[in-house]
Design goal:
Blueprint lengths: L1 H23 L4 H13 L1 H37 L5 H49 L8 H69 L1
């Protein structure tokens, strides 16, 4: 059952990556405006967003469970004094699975927050583009022009801050991915070592039986 749950979390992560790539993919502003408008007004899109919010609630619960399980495994490992190689190997495998589940649920929630921020930023840019392209009555005079310039400068500064924040979050996500890859390599090494020790133990048991 737990494997099915984390498989669903992985599927949600892949869907988030696909949507994120779709949002940042270079395309004409007309297409992107239509996509943002559809996601904001379509009944189907609203139902999908509602379902994703519910899924994020379950992911949050799985993340808390994974963190508690990882902490429990680490405490058991620190308290136990095992000398059997097979038991030590099994304990390390349990720790790896706990770490994997923690990283998987954490990255899924983290990417979801980035996706929400990116969607909001693009929607704001599209809205500002629509407002700027609409016909407006411009008040003549240097004071109104100066106020408009100051307003645009303020929006530009806010947009630059949001872009810097998104870049920082992307770097954090890359770091988490590298940690997950490192843990996967460590697991494969431990699995090979476990098979090797099991083979040696079987050989010793056969030797004792022959003797």
């Amino acid at each position: 059952m737990a494997t099915l749950q984390y498989t669903g979390v992985f599927a949600l992560l892949l869907a988030e990556v696909f949507v994120f790539i779709l949002l940042i993919l270079p395309m004409p502003m007309r297409w992107k405006r239509g996509m943002i408008t559809w996601s904001s007004q379509s009944v189907v899109a609203q139902r999908v967003i509602y379902g994703v919010r519910i899924a994020f609630g379950f992911v949050l619960l799985l993340f808390a469970d994974a963190v508690m399980r990882l902490r429990r495994v680490q405490e058991e490992r620190s308290k136990s004094r095992l000398i059997d190689d097979h038991a030590i190997c099994q304990q390390r495998v349990q720790q790896f699975y706990a770490q994997r589940n923690t990283y998987l649920t954490g990255i899924t929630m983290f990417l979801g927050l980035i996706l929400i921020s990116t969607h909001s930023l693009i929607a704001q840019i599209v809205t500002n583009g629509n407002a700027s392209s609409a016909p407006r009555i411009v008040t003549s005079g240097p004071s109104s022009t100066k106020a408009e310039v100051e307003r645009l400068k303020g929006k530009l500064v806010d947009a630059n801050k949001e872009i810097d924040e998104l870049k920082r979050k992307d770097r954090d996500m890359e770091t988490l991915k590298k940690q997950a890859d490192s843990n996967h390599d460590e697991y494969m090494r431990l699995a090979d070592r476990c098979k090797e020790l099991e083979g040696q133990l079987a050989s010793k048991n056969e030797s004792k039986k022959d003797a």
